[in-house]
């Protein structure tokens, strides 16, 4: 049985997936996946290439279907991908409100672009924007829809290191202000720990591991506990780390809470 429920009425709806299956031919990419995301929760999704992260995100965004299971998502969703996907012939502000039918849409575009630091680039065409600026336009296009669920598929992967740090700060600032639930797909373990409340690892079509990240914000890679979490996550991803000894800590003292396998 397949159920996709898009909530229209409730002001805040969590994401809830039960026994979700998505397959392409004989290949079961998502294989009985269960996942809950609380309103306002920031979740990072790690997993090997080809493990189904984008497939999952596309289903949550409503861009792809599922074959069976239950999937419950809020109506107000927005997705940002690795590449900004802007229309080259439309100015920045027009890209932001593409498909949005609201009487005050220009004002909303201006507000969203201002929030991402691009008030001075409203009239710019995509070809004249830097990679980071174009990605901020894509983010503004998401924001203008006031999403309760913001889906981010490696949105910073193509950016240089400094721009990525700025984008991390921006995303946290926007998340704190607008409080959407966020699902961020990334290959960068540090990025996941820096940003998320919880990190989940996708393997064999299911959530294989989860870690709660209780580090105080604003986070940095040098803060106490960071490297322990990093080593544990890399271990879960099958990467050997020989520089850090990772100790199991009691729940009450630890920064890491390990969940049962999903
Ligand atoms: N439309 C499709 N038709 C057939 N196979 C597909 C389709 N979309 C995805 N797949 C396959 O599903 C698997 C998972 O793909 P997906 O893009 O979700 O992986 P991913 O975890 O996002 O990988 P990456 O980290 O490389 O982005 C891959 O084997 C891919 O080839
Ligand atoms: Mg992908």
UniProtKB/TrEMBL annotation:
Annotated InterPro entries: AAA+_ATPase, ABC_transporter-like_ATP-bd, ABC_transporter-like_CS, ABC_transporter_ATP-bind, P-loop_NTPase
GO molecular function per UniProt: ATP binding; ATP hydrolysis activity
Cross-referenced SMART domains: AAA (SM00382)
Gene3D superfamilies in UniProt: P-loop containing nucleotide triphosphate hydrolases (3.40.50.300)
Keyword annotations from UniProtKB, A to Z: ATP-binding, Cell membrane, Membrane, Nucleotide-binding, Translocase, Transport
PROSITE patterns documented for this protein: ABC_TRANSPORTER_1, ABC_TRANSPORTER_2
A Pfam family this chain is assigned to: ABC_tran
Family matches, as PANTHER family: ALIPHATIC SULFONATES IMPORT ATP-BINDING PROTEIN SSUB, TAURINE IMPORT ATP-BINDING PROTEIN-RELATED
Protein name (database record): Sulfonate ABC transporter ATP-binding protein
Biological source species: Pseudomonas chlororaphis
């Amino acid at each position: 049985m397949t159920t996709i429920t898009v909530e229209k009425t409730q002001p805040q709806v969590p994401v809830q997936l039960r026994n979700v299956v998505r397959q392409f031919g004989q290949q079961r990419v998502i294989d009985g996946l269960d996942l809950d995301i609380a309103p306002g929760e920031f979740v990072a999704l790690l997993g090997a290439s080809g493990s189904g992260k984008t497939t999952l995100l596309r289903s949550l965004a409503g861009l792809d279907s599922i074959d069976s299971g239950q999937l419950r998502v809020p109506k107000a969703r927005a997705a940002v991908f690795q590449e900004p996907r802007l229309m080259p012939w439309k100015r920045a502000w027009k890209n932001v409100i593409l498909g949005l039918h609201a009487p005050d849409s220009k004002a909303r575009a201006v507000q969203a672009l201002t929030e991402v630091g691009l008030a001075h680039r409203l009239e710019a065409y995509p070809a004249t924007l830097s990679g980071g600026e174009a990605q901020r336009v894509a983010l503004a296009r998401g924001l203008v829809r006031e999403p309760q669920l913001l889906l981010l598929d490696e949105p910073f992967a193509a950016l240089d290191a400094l721009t990525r740090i700025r984008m991390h700060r921006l995303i946290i600032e926007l998340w704190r202000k607008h409080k959407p639930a966020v699902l961020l797909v990334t290959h960068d373990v540090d990025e996941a720990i820096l940003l998320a409340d919880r990190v989940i690892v996708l393997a064999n079509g299911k959530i294989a591991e989860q870690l709660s990240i209780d580090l105080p914000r604003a986070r940095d890679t040098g803060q106490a506990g960071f490297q322990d979490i990093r080593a544990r996550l890399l271990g879960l991803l099958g990467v050997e780390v020989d520089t850090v000894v990772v100790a199991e800590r009691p729940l009450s003292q630890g920064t890491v809470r390990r969940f049962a396998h999903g």
